């Protein structure tokens, strides 16, 4: 029989075909604000905007849903972008002095929403060019490009350089027209002797074409000289002898005036007259924020209006001593004067205008995009339908909700609109292109928790991630910046009102990286979309239950304290204090309003929460233990301490000392060295309990298959062993196989699983799930039913209960309100436990199946979700699958309940610890993870469900078709992918991925329900993540020949 033991199983072609219809990996779109933007451009004809980044990415935006992404071959910063208006072409200048030409090209027709979409457009690089060095000059700095200008004819590009030369390139071929090259020597010969003085004119700082006379160029040099150059006759028409270092130039619309801005914080107006070839002085010169020294005005725009008074916009110019650290943009018109004060650096700005009448100004900042409405009195800011700064306060966690009911969506949208002042016509000015994607079938919410105690609700139904509603939890507590404790507002003081502030600052933008109190940071979120109940938990042990209300309310918040230590001796909390709750009634705006505050003691960061709104129960866990609370009756049901006697690190808290992290890293390295030098038969210390004794015996006796890695059991003395990693409610069988009831499951960092039987009024076998009026005095009770200890003490990442058909139990209210197929309660249930090292399926407490992921793959589980995958071939067919994200950044998909490997995909770089920690899955096979502090990458594991840009643009030229036979990979702007040179797309063109699946004869699962459960989506980074990054892990895949034999082996679990 032994010769058949390791026989390779044959491949089932039918199963492989079904897997290709179910699974396909695609990175589809990037949500949020581009990381480290460096350039901005606008096409007034196509109404498209482009943003370049320091990582070499180009992102083009139009109306919501219209997006195109390009990525240069080298991750070099984009310094300038310029559109060829109306042509669907743009030029990019990189920091390595190369020019790149991009085009919008026609893509292949795409199937979307059951219909074929024609006219889909993508962005593609078509050419690149670099200026040759000047003969006889070894240094290339003389030809380093400083400024670009596209002539209005659209067929000529002017290039200004550091050496003072101006070169002309023919477009779109990017060929140099040497006969038109203008060197600085030619200009110097035309200068008066007293201005020449043997000095260089410096680099070319600005190039501007005459608005009325094509071919005439205004050339500005750094020294201050401005030249009006006639390119047709190649002669100097006029000289403007500026004496201050030049920053930028702009024409007045008639061409009779131009404005220059300078490094002393001033700007000058020059008159272009006939008959006088040399102009020594400007018509006027102004230092707006003088007379004291001011910073440079980097860019200035002068826009004429029908009323006669021009609108002047400029960045910089602030007084050095008083406001030198401010990031400002000034808007002036007649007597109106506003200084927009931003919280991050101004990169660039442009105006949207018709015949020079500005309707809006778009400002690209380092951390956000701000748009000001110039048509409405007061110049208010416009809300952005995309490019919202997700990191306005640092993201600490996330939670996704699929299939949001229309009523909840409408109420959230109304609450969000009430938070904004929308008493004006807010038309988004960047509205080019056409979105071809079908409307979403279901509404999706992405909730993000932030460091300042806010929870932001985002519309994640489509390509554009749009802000919907913002919830703040700070008003539940007294904080260091409590508004009620502030001194009198200076605006209320009549003496202060007499002195008008100068400059007239106005705070604009929502990026605010500073938190009033780090204890407010949100760590966990859970939302019930049917009952409109929300649970948020924070860093100081606060757990808040909120309900949705359409009216403003002023009420006190009930406070309950739960002691998780249970008076255990020998433990002293050394961390931060808990937040002080408000005892007086507070005013809460429409939206989610707090009902009850549960305060954990000690006030450690909450590591897990679970909400069951149908039972009115919440469960929460910290590094000390877990608790159960009935928020309907306002009483604590259970508090269980999970601390080990040696778990001293759990008492220090995350905000107490830096040496805590050092201590953890030191202990991790000691364990690593210990495991490397220890042999296969290492001596076992004297066990102190029956559980440890049995663990040691199993560890010595277990035979490791030739293809498996040896897994060393983790010490029970490890710090933070009591951290609660996951919590789960389920209506299942725990006490016996005939009576089901409410249960609570908890998993810890040391591999312990606790299962509690709950006595909830109206829940259980033979009773309707209805709560009568007379049950108000009946309390919920909890009794410990089972306690499971995993052999290797690996942290338990998630727990989920499967019904008699092996399908996940429906969410609360889904079964009782006939929103999902009722679970199978006739057959025995099983519980699915995922630890960092392996995945178990346990009916009752005896092993059914397991997969040793660490032993086979050399990786550890970080995120887990149960997902329903629909088939692209059969509309009514779907399979429930277990998705595991590992510390190496790859996705493993397993069938349930058999736990047979299906496919594996490389998703995230293993070095991207924060990306792996921030990953959250959706119920339909998609997911999100942070690729930068301000951007989410959206990906899909499903062949059927994709959220990707499908766009078209009407151009002035015929569209060229892209090569549809070439295999293209969606470019990612963070530069973490393997990118084909010169390829960039506005949508994913990737065919279904080649499946990396083990050769197994897998039986076909046929689920009856599409309900699933998304588990653990925290974005925190643990010491284990850092250790995994520092430790060398074997990444090579191994042949999984012994999967069949593993089913008969020891389960590796013990029962206390």
From TrEMBL:
Ranges for domain Lethal giant larvae homologue: 286-380
Molecular function GO labels: GTPase activator activity; myosin II binding
Record-linked InterPro entries: Lethal2_giant (IPR000664), LLGL2 (IPR013577), WD40/YVTN_repeat-like_dom_sf (IPR015943), WD40_repeat_CS (IPR019775), WD40_repeat_dom_sf (IPR036322), WD40_rpt (IPR001680)
WD repeats: 71-104, 442-459
Region (Disordered): 479-502, 962-1003
GO BP terms in the entry: cortical actin cytoskeleton organization; establishment of spindle orientation; exocytosis; Golgi to plasma membrane transport; regulation of establishment or maintenance of cell polarity; regulation of Notch signaling pathway
Stretches with biased composition (Acidic residues): 482-502
PROSITE patterns in UniProt: WD_REPEATS_1, WD_REPEATS_2
GO cellular component, one term: plasma membrane
UniProt keyword list: Exocytosis, Repeat, WD repeat
Biased composition (Polar residues): 962-976
PANTHER family xref list: LETHAL 2 GIANT LARVAE PROTEIN (PTHR10241), LETHAL(2) GIANT LARVAE PROTEIN HOMOLOG 1 (PTHR10241:SF21)
Sequence similarity: Belongs to the WD repeat L(2)GL family.
Protein name per Swiss-Prot or TrEMBL: LLGL scribble cell polarity complex component 1
